[in-house]
Amino acid sequence: MATASEFAWSKDFTIGLIGMGDMGRMYARRLANAGWRVMACDREEKFEELAKEFADNTNIQILRNGHLVSRASNYIIYSVEAAAIGRVVEQFGPSTRLGAIVGGQTSCKDPEIKAFESYLPSDVDIVSCHSLHGPNVDPRGQPLVLIKHRASDESFQKVESVLSCLNSTHVYLTAKEHDRITADTQAVTHAAFLSMGKAWHANRQFPWEEGSRYIGGIENVKINLMLRIYAQKWHVYAGLAILNPEAHKQIGQFARSSTELFYLMLEGRSDELRERVYKAKEKVFGAEGSPKWAERPLLKEELLDRFSLNKPSGEKGGGRGLPNNHLSLLAMVDCWSALGIVPYDHMICSTPLFRLWLGVAEHLFRTPGLLDECLRVGIEDKSFRRDDLQFAIAAAGWAECVSLRQFDTWRERFAVTQKFFEPRFKGAVEVGQAMIKAVLESEKE
Ligand SMILES: NC(=O)C1=CN([C@@H]2O[C@H](COP(=O)(O)OP(=O)(O)OC[C@H]3O[C@@H](n4cnc5c(N)ncnc54)[C@H](OP(=O)(O)O)[C@@H]3O)[C@@H](O)[C@H]2O)C=CC1
Ligand SMILES: O=C(O)C(=O)Cc1ccc(O)cc1
């Protein structure tokens, strides 16, 4: 790990953090541990509490507001809600120290870059970043996007040197490329899990408590990741869907794919369903004999079997549950196909969640017999009709909300379902965390 002392210019180099929420705190701690001097703030009313929390960390100094951070720092990172970035940069941007470097850690770069261009003095360099993982994931080896938007080579190298202590894999993109890729990887993936949660909520079920209905590795991924998302702050997911101009098309297509495949199942149009799904398979995963997937599957189902919520931790998932038609996964692959997205092309810039979701999709499409069984169930078996109906309704609801840029409605939709699952978060979130950790470990093998 590169530390501050390894860089000759670093003696007087101070890093500023505006926004000390989950990501800001994670950055502050890791930068300080590497020896950097960090000056940080959150909203003024949180000053005392934050100062107390970081009192024993001599490398971190908490200041009252972003003006004080901006004027004292050489490299300032805004780590606030994506929807607030314009307002916050408008407020503190003019106080930026002469010749400083400024960047942001928001999940969507279009509003962030617009804010910087509008409100930062012209002598300030702009280098943005985005860690493609949550605050509780070990950043080592995870993608870290770096955007050299308006900066000298020297400023860019300084940012790279500072952030090298995260030991992430640096990915160099423009802001536009970043938003296009994360629309494909993050926004549409979240739409699937948000819709699952809504569907289970609408039918008032905790799926892992439903006897044999949701058992096995694929179901564990659905359930654990759905819970993981609903246990987080709403603004992260709303921001990267609503504010990313590239994401609306993807989320809209996902809703259309869900509805259209559901109609084919409902109306028993077996041949059309099969033809459509196999065509999507070929576009996304390659033709028979020349697949796009690697020789080694992205995921081992046996590994996922271990992380069931309805079994004591560590016990094996317990055989197979009711065969499921996996509408959410069929719709995901249909959506990728309709938009010409080859998900493997985005691995370099993927989140753990996306890799898991692609991993289960790949598993379904490459395991002999599984896809055909899924299509048969979709036509013949009515066990999942109610859930599928609610899933399609939910996907359409999220898509409409995003396309109309309805932040308040988005928050309300999220909050009621979060409340439904909240009594089960304790314990469940840990199982999900352990599952992600195991998958990340297995990626290294
Ligand atoms: N969570 C995640 O997994 C990831 C998030 N991101 C992105 O990082 C950014 C931060 O996310 P995260 O840390 O999770 O969110 P948090 O809500 O935990 O943190 C944002 C913090 O910024 C504070 N804030 C708002 N306005 C101001 C202001 N004027 N001055 C100082 N502080 C302010 C917020 O206060 P208040 O709550 O009072 O508004 C809050 O404490 C977001 O843009 C998100 O999209 C990126 C990668 C991963
Ligand atoms: O739960 C996960 O892994 C995520 O998807 C977390 C996440 C949220 C927002 C980001 O901008 C990056 C990563």
From TrEMBL:
Q: Which family does it belong to?
A: Belongs to the prephenate/arogenate dehydrogenase family.
Q: Which organism is it from?
A: Podospora anserina (strain S / ATCC MYA-4624 / DSM 980 / FGSC 10383) (Pleurage anserina)
Q: What is this protein called?
A: Prephenate dehydrogenase [NADP(+)]
Q: Which GO terms describe its molecular function?
A: NAD+ binding; NADP binding; prephenate dehydrogenase (NAD+) activity; prephenate dehydrogenase (NADP+) activity
**Which key words are in the record?**
Amino-acid biosynthesis, Aromatic amino acid biosynthesis, NADP, Oxidoreductase, Tyrosine biosynthesis
Concerning PANTHER family, the annotation shows: PREPHENATE DEHYDROGENASE, PREPHENATE DEHYDROGENASE [NADP(+)]
Domain Prephenate/arogenate dehydrogenase: where? 13-295
The source's superkingdom equals Eukaryota
Q: Which reaction(s) does the protein catalyse, per the Swiss-Prot or TrEMBL entry?
A: prephenate + NADP(+) = 3-(4-hydroxyphenyl)pyruvate + CO2 + NADPH
Pfam families per UniProt: NAD_binding_2, PDH_C
Q: Which Gene3D superfamilies match?
A: 6-phosphogluconate dehydrogenase C-terminal like domain, NAD(P)-binding Rossmann-like Domain
